[in-house]
């Protein structure tokens, strides 16, 4: 069970508010100073850290994997759960000892936690020198220079235009095969449990031609898979005159061109048939048949959709302000299966124990899981976040032990469904992209199939990272497929 949870990113009850993190790697290109970044939370944060590293590299910084060697430490933070923020505060305590012996060290808090707490962070965490929100990273060199002169600084301005389209990210923790491309920023959905609209601002879409150019550059450097990132990729909408979706919707007839997400998907797919294309995350209210048919048209657009449901009960979905009900969600799943087939991978997010959720409503989530048959899911119990609509309007009235028990039942259900779905692959031949060696042994290679499932094959020395290979699936666990190369 532990390996299953670790491999498939399902969160155990006792770790239900934990937070993934990544750190910078060692780079020595002769720059005069060293930058260390710890990134927490979602893929968007990891992508943002690559933008930050690029900005700082242009201003005299190499990256380091050892924070004790750094001249500047950045924590790129997440606010989606309380545990994520507490983790950051604990890390700041670790850095305090370094700061005492190295007072010239600059420490900054970036991202969603910075945006939520703003200058309050400077008061609460005395060793923090700068606080910068997700739309103000271009200001980091100025703020760092000011901090080196003894001045603390805050920039949490939320932009309606900033997309960092002109910045070429420094790829951090890269396997050289897969990469993220940020296609939009912000979120216009006001889910009652979520802080993202307050910490990342309104939706605005990046110039599609800059996205295509980034994909081309990555392919030329040897990358073979890109993931298009956005808080809600299906609402991507761009014109040369306006990249802010809310304003664009009001004057669509006045602009010269409109590129929607289906158009963008096709543009990236056409970069090269050997470049796989993925995307995340989709909102059930916005994913269209046009997107599904575009996925069907191109073999290199992976047949996998992350479609968070959060709850299987319509009343709870209304309280969450998800703007769809159970029937709407199941209709979107039906369309996916009809257009893309039963083999298309579908994953989800689940929240156990949202405000006022009854046992019967919890059961609705379990029955919906049985109908959809998710390949895997990211699962948590509800964590009230200050400033959200839910925190203002609803009492967090489900006892923690009930939340944990319901979460455990959801995890148990998903474990069984993941195994059931993986068994359907046994005996089939699938194309996988080799990403490197297995975590457990250099004698095995790890790749992924189109449906985003990990596939393990023997390493006979003839294959390398970035190779496509056809594999017959011989066996499976709930988390992994095992196969052999076929000629």
UniProtKB/TrEMBL annotation:
<keyword id="KW-0963">Cytoplasm</keyword>
<dbReference type="GO" id="GO:0005829">
    <property type="term" value="C:cytosol"/>
</dbReference>
<feature type="binding site">
    <location>
        <position position="191"/>
    </location>
    <ligand>
        <name>[4Fe-4S] cluster 2</name>
    </ligand>
</feature>
<feature type="binding site">
    <location>
        <position position="112"/>
    </location>
    <ligand>
        <name>[4Fe-4S] cluster 1</name>
    </ligand>
</feature>
<feature type="binding site">
    <location>
        <position position="194"/>
    </location>
    <ligand>
        <name>[4Fe-4S] cluster 2</name>
    </ligand>
</feature>
<feature type="domain" description="Radical SAM core">
    <location>
        <begin position="173"/>
        <end position="420"/>
    </location>
</feature>
<dbReference type="InterPro" id="IPR002792">
    <property type="entry name" value="TRAM_dom"/>
</dbReference>
<dbReference type="InterPro" id="IPR006638">
    <property type="entry name" value="Elp3/MiaA/NifB-like_rSAM"/>
</dbReference>
<feature type="binding site">
    <location>
        <position position="187"/>
    </location>
    <ligand>
        <name>[4Fe-4S] cluster 2</name>
    </ligand>
</feature>
<dbReference type="GO" id="GO:0035597">
    <property type="term" value="F:tRNA-2-methylthio-N(6)-dimethylallyladenosine(37) synthase activity"/>
</dbReference>
<dbReference type="InterPro" id="IPR006463">
    <property type="entry name" value="MiaB_methiolase"/>
</dbReference>
<comment type="similarity">
    <text>Belongs to the methylthiotransferase family. MiaB subfamily.</text>
</comment>
<feature type="binding site">
    <location>
        <position position="78"/>
    </location>
    <ligand>
        <name>[4Fe-4S] cluster 1</name>
    </ligand>
</feature>
<dbReference type="InterPro" id="IPR020612">
    <property type="entry name" value="Methylthiotransferase_CS"/>
</dbReference>
<dbReference type="Pfam" id="PF04055">
    <property type="entry name" value="Radical_SAM"/>
</dbReference>
<keyword id="KW-0808">Transferase</keyword>
<dbReference type="InterPro" id="IPR007197">
    <property type="entry name" value="rSAM"/>
</dbReference>
<comment type="function">
    <text>Catalyzes the methylthiolation of N6-(dimethylallyl)adenosine (i(6)A), leading to the formation of 2-methylthio-N6-(dimethylallyl)adenosine (ms(2)i(6)A) at position 37 in tRNAs that read codons beginning with uridine.</text>
</comment>
<dbReference type="GO" id="GO:0051539">
    <property type="term" value="F:4 iron, 4 sulfur cluster binding"/>
</dbReference>
<keyword id="KW-0004">4Fe-4S</keyword>
<comment type="subunit">
    <text>Monomer.</text>
</comment>
<feature type="binding site">
    <location>
        <position position="42"/>
    </location>
    <ligand>
        <name>[4Fe-4S] cluster 1</name>
    </ligand>
</feature>
<dbReference type="GO" id="GO:0046872">
    <property type="term" value="F:metal ion binding"/>
</dbReference>
<dbReference type="InterPro" id="IPR005839">
    <property type="entry name" value="Methylthiotransferase"/>
</dbReference>
<dbReference type="InterPro" id="IPR038135">
    <property type="entry name" value="Methylthiotransferase_N_sf"/>
</dbReference>
<feature type="domain" description="MTTase N-terminal">
    <location>
        <begin position="33"/>
        <end position="149"/>
    </location>
</feature>
<dbReference type="InterPro" id="IPR013848">
    <property type="entry name" value="Methylthiotransferase_N"/>
</dbReference>
<dbReference type="Pfam" id="PF01938">
    <property type="entry name" value="TRAM"/>
</dbReference>
<keyword id="KW-0949">S-adenosyl-L-methionine</keyword>
<protein>
    <recommendedName>
        <fullName>tRNA-2-methylthio-N(6)-dimethylallyladenosine synthase</fullName>
        <ecNumber>2.8.4.3</ecNumber>
    </recommendedName>
</protein>
<dbReference type="InterPro" id="IPR058240">
    <property type="entry name" value="rSAM_sf"/>
</dbReference>
<feature type="domain" description="TRAM">
    <location>
        <begin position="423"/>
        <end position="487"/>
    </location>
</feature>
<dbReference type="Pfam" id="PF00919">
    <property type="entry name" value="UPF0004"/>
</dbReference>
<keyword id="KW-0408">Iron</keyword>
<keyword id="KW-0479">Metal-binding</keyword>
<keyword id="KW-0411">Iron-sulfur</keyword>
<keyword id="KW-0819">tRNA processing</keyword>
<dbReference type="InterPro" id="IPR023404">
    <property type="entry name" value="rSAM_horseshoe"/>
</dbReference>
């Amino acid at each position: 069970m532990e390996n299953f949870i670790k491999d498939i990113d399902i969160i155990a009850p006792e770790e239900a508010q934990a937070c993934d993190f990544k750190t910078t790697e060692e780079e020595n290109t002769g720059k005069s100073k060293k930058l260390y970044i710890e990134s927490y939370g979602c893929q968007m944060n990891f992508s943002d850290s690559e933008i930050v590293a690029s900005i700082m590299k242009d201003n005299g910084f190499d990256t380091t994997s050892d924070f004790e060697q750094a001249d500047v430490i950045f924590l790129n933070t997440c606010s989606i759960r309380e545990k994520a923020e507490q983790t950051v505060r604990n890390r700041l305590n670790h850095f305090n000892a370094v700061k005492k012996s190295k007072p010239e060290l600059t420490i900054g808090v970036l991202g969603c936690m910075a945006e939520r707490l703003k200058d309050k962070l400077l008061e609460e965490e005395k060793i923090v020198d700068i606080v910068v929100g997700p739309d103000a990273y271009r200001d980091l060199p100025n703020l760092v220079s000011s901090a080196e002169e003894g001045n603390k600084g805050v920039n949490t301005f939320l932009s309606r235009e900033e997309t960092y389209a002109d910045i070429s990210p420094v790829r951090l923790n890269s396997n050289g095969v897969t990469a993220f491309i940020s296609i939009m920023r912000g979120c216009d959905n006001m889910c009652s449990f979520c802080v993202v609209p307050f910490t990342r601002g309104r939706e605005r879409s990046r110039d599609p031609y800059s996205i295509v150019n980034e994909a081309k550059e990555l392919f030329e450097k040897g990358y073979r898979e890109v993931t298009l990132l956005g808080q809600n990729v299906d609402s991507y909408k761009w014109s040369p005159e306006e990249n802010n979706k809310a304003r664009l919707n009001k004057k669509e007839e006045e602009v010269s061109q409109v590129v929607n997400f289906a158009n963008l998907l096709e543009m990236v797919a056409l970069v090269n048939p050997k470049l796989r294309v993925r995307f995340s995350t989709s909102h059930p209210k916005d994913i269209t048949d046009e997107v599904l048919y575009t996925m069907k048209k191109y073999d290199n657009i992976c047949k996998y959709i992350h479609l968070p449901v959060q709850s299987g009960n319509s009343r709870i979905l209304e309280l969450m302000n998800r703007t769809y009900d159970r029937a709407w969600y199941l209709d979107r799943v039906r369309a996916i299966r009809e257009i893309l087939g039963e083999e298309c991978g579908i994953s989800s997010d689940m929240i156990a124990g949202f405000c006022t959720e009854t046992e019967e409503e919890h059961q609705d989530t379990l029955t919906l899981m049985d109908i959809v048959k998710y390949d895997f899911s990211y699962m948590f119990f509800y964590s009230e976040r200050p400033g959200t609509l839910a925190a203002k309007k609803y009492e967090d009235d489900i006892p923690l032990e009930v939340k944990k028990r319901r979460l455990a039942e959801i995890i148990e259900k998903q474990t069984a469904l993941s195994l059931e779905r993986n068994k359907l692959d046994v005996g089939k031949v699938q194309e996988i992209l080799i990403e490197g060696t297995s975590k457990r042994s250099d004698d095995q290679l790890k790749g992924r199939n189109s449906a985003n499932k990990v596939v393990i094959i023997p390493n006979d020395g003839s294959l390398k990272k970035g190779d496509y290979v056809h594999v017959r699936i011989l066996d499976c666990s709930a988390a992994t497929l095992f196969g052999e190369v076929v000629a």
